[in-house]
Every structure is written in C-alpha cells, then in structure tokens.
Design brief:
Distance between the termini: 41 Å
CATH class of one domain: Alpha Beta
CATH superfamily of one domain: Ribokinase
Helix content: 40-55%
Number of helices: 10
Mean pLDDT: 82
Strand order of the largest sheet: 5-4-1-8-9-10
Low-confidence stretches: 255-261, 282-291
Shape: globular
Structural class: alpha/beta
Largest sheet: 6 strands, parallel
CATH architecture of one domain: 3-Layer(aba) Sandwich
Radius of gyration: 22 Å
C-alpha cells in the first residue's frame, strides 16, 4: 500500500537557461507535471508514493521514468507508449514573476492513458489519491481519471484535487469549468489558487468566491453522505445479477444465435455487463444530483 497515489500529466518543462554564445535563447529540460511534483516532495519527506500516467517511449519519456524513480517515486504504473509523444511545455517567466506556458500536446502521451491501463489494486489500496485537471481535458484520459477516482474512493482513500487552470489546453473555458467543478465535487482536499477560485466561482472578489466555495462544499458534504448510502445499496448487485440472467437467457435462446461465434458473443456479453456496472456505480457515485447542485451553485 502506498501513502499517496497520484494520476495525471508527466512532461518536460523547458525553462529559460540563458543564451548561447551566438545570443540564441537556451532552454533547460526539467521533469514536470503538477501531480508528480506533489509526489516528489512527499517522497523526500519519506512517504511511499506511486505515480499513474503515460509518457512516450521516447528520449523524454525514458528520461522522466528515470527521474521519478531516482526521486523515490514508484514508477510501476507509468506506461511508456511507443506510438505517442511525451508532452512538452516551454515556460516563459514574466517580469512580475508569473509564468506562461506553450504546450506541445495534441495529443500528448499523458492524454492517451486508458481505463484499462489503470493499476486497480494500487488505487483501491491508496491512502490518499491526488489528481489534477489536465487529465480531464480529453478522452481517453478523462475516462481513466474518473475511473481512478471511483476506485480510490471505493477503497476509502482521501481524494485530493488540484484544478490547475491552463486555458490553452481546453476546447472551451466552459468545458474546463464543468470538469473542474466535477473534480471539486469528488474531493475532500482542494488546492486552489486565487485565479482558479475566481474562475470556478465566477466571482472577482476573493472573499465572495471563498464564500461561494464554502457554500458549495456544504452542499457537497450532504450529497457525499447520500452517495455513500447509495453505494452500499444492494440494489446495484441485484441489477448486475439481472443482467447476468438476461445474458444467460440470450445465450440459450433462439437457434439463430447458434450461428454466432460463441467466444465473441460471450466476450460481448461480459463487456455489456462490465459497462453497465460501471455506469450504475458512476451515476450513484458522481450523481445527476451532484451535477444539478453544482450548476445551481454556479448561478
């Protein structure tokens, strides 16, 4: 069991490194990615940590795998994909100390993590599960993130979320806000910067934004209690049993079914059952009620 498991982007941050002898700007390749940065600090404090994500099986991806292992982070759930490129970010420092980012990620390997590549046992046994918003920008990493959150929560983990707003990585800011609010709805620990607080609550005044966020948290606390009650409801298992019975009936049904490849048919049935179970648990876990409440708070 790991103390903290994190999922998300692992990338190369190219930061300004002065100028060459010819006066051209130099950039230094640094391991980056907010979720893994959290693990790096925890590993230095002696905590057992593991990272879940995907990089390209390329120069940068192999460099990143070596870097996190050297830091003391378990890399067993880091997937190296030979068909994808590791995400790159070029960082520019502004005079006021703020940073701007130029991403090369359309798509990057981190966005291609699938639910099937998740380490389910590690997620179910996590003490704390941490994730950020960048794995929610597109599929299939969005589905993988939602599945990971559900697995960690089922195992009793404390869920931590970092909205980490990067507008250029989203198709629209409305989509970004909706996904970030979903992240807020499933976490017990929220790390939010001033800019993100304003973005999430649509309040320019920080005190007003904080008040709206506290209102949101109060509503979510009640909804989480209901969610836990629903997750213990045996009706879920009854629905799954009914699906199995339906599948058995179909398999023994009309003679026309005999012309189907039985192994292919059985595999299809199992996929339907698995998908149905996932959807049922997701609806109870994240809830249509939750979505409605979040939208109401935004108004």
């Amino acid at each position: 069991m790991f103390d903290v498991t994190a999922l998300g982007e692992l990338l190369i941050d190219f930061t300004p490194g002065g100028a060459s002898g010819q006066g051209n700007p130099l950039f230094e390749a640094n391991p980056g990615g907010a979720p893994c940065n959290v693990l790096a600090m925890l590993a230095r404090l002696g905590r057992r940590t593991t990272f879940v994500g995907k990089v390209g099986d390329d120069l940068f991806g192999r460099m990143l795998k070596g870097s996190i292992a050297e830091t003391g982070i378990d890399a067993g759930a880091l997937v190296l994909d030979p068909a994808a490129h590791t995400t790159l970010a070029f960082v520019q420092n502004a005079p006021d100390g703020d940073r701007t980012f130029s991403f090369y990620r359309d798509p990057g390997a981190d966005e291609l993590l699938t639910p099937e590549e998740l380490p389910e046992s590690a997620l179910r046994s996590a003490g704390i599960f941490h994730f950020g918003s960048l794995s929610l920008t597109r599929e299939p990493s969005r589905a993988a993130t939602r599945r990971a959150v559900a697995l960690a929560a089922e195992g009793g983990a404390v869920v931590s979320f970092d909205p980490n707003l990067r507008p250029s990585l989203w198709k629209s800011l409305d989509a970004a806000r909706e996904e970030m609010l979903w992240g807020c709805s499933v976490c017990q620990v929220l790390k939010v910067a001033e800019e993100e607080l304003s973005f999430l609550t649509t309040e320019e005044d920080l005190e007003a934004g904080a008040a709206k966020l506290r209102e949101l948290d109060g509503r979510l606390t009640e909804l989480r209690k209901e969610r836990r009650r629903l997750l213990k409801n045996e009706d879920i298992e009854d629905v799954i049993d009914a699906l199995h019975r339906t599948a058995d009936t179909l398999h023994a049904g009309p003679e026309a079914l005999d012309s189907f490849d039985e192994s292919l048919f059985a595999d299809l049935v199992e996929k339907i059952i698995a998908e149905s179970q996932t959807r049922i648990r997701f609806r109870l876990y994240c809830g249509i009620e939750l979505t409605a409440q979040l939208r109401e708070v935004r108004r």
